[in-house]
């Protein structure tokens, strides 16, 4: 059998050998592969099953060869017999038709800094990007200095296992992240991408985008190492939040956004000033008992949607309802006295039996609502003053365990 590019192969700097596809026999190996064995007073084996400690028969080679041919394995790690020693090596495998070229890298003492500088150098062009390598079997995580900088901690304090990494991921995001990575490994996928929040040393959270890619596989095709990086996308998320605030309707509840509601609020306040009519503002805290924080993000979103629909059905056509924070709504009641406002709001916190069933199915409980009331002009003559006064009433209500409080 002729060896392709025989002279170049023989003296290439990387140790390499060629295996016959049909038989698993080593038909050639280059100078540096031979030297590696000479250093141990040994000679290379002449078959794959005698070279590779993970193989027990030629059938193991045929299975691996099939995976190489169909492209499901391009890189794997295996214990290679070098004399009486077993050396963990990374093999880069290339199908050449009748044979397979295997380039060998000793990974017993893998230099992580070298990996950071060469394997994913393109990923480190952004200063906030951080590289990591995860060994699936030992669950060892190795982090670059840039991750330590990102988190504001010394490099030796960076997470060294999946559990330690998940411990600093936001509780609402950790299950989604874990499920995605588990799926990546279970299905031997090549690539995944996910966005989540991670906690810094000062206990604040920043948004990151994580991109992971299979780095090496075992000879059976299962994933051995995953390599990837995280990038700070907090500024991008802040921009997205700003654009959402500029939108007319809230994406989750369908209610007006803060920005859109402000126009309506100012218009109604102007009318109240000109016509000397009453105007009441109510700040509605949907989670005054901090119950929703114990739910998953999906369940909490359903609860907020359900609560918002319940309240919207209770208000009048002229009233203006907006979602101004994650679990807080602002309700403007034109031409409405405090007495009439309290009557309407009592209908909200005291649903009918049929309404209770719908609310409970949607993870919502009006007992969690706390409503603060402010009136014009007694509690303020601008929208901001009224909102601040209503918010203070909510805080007083939480402190006193009252559901409706007039400032």
UniProtKB/TrEMBL annotation:
Residues 192-245 form the PAC domain. The keyword S-adenosyl-L-methionine does not apply. It is an enzyme of class 2 (transferase). One of its GO terms (molecular function) is diguanylate cyclase activity. Pfam families: GGDEF, PAS_3. Its EC number is 2.7.7.65. This is Diguanylate cyclase. It comes from Marinomonas primoryensis.
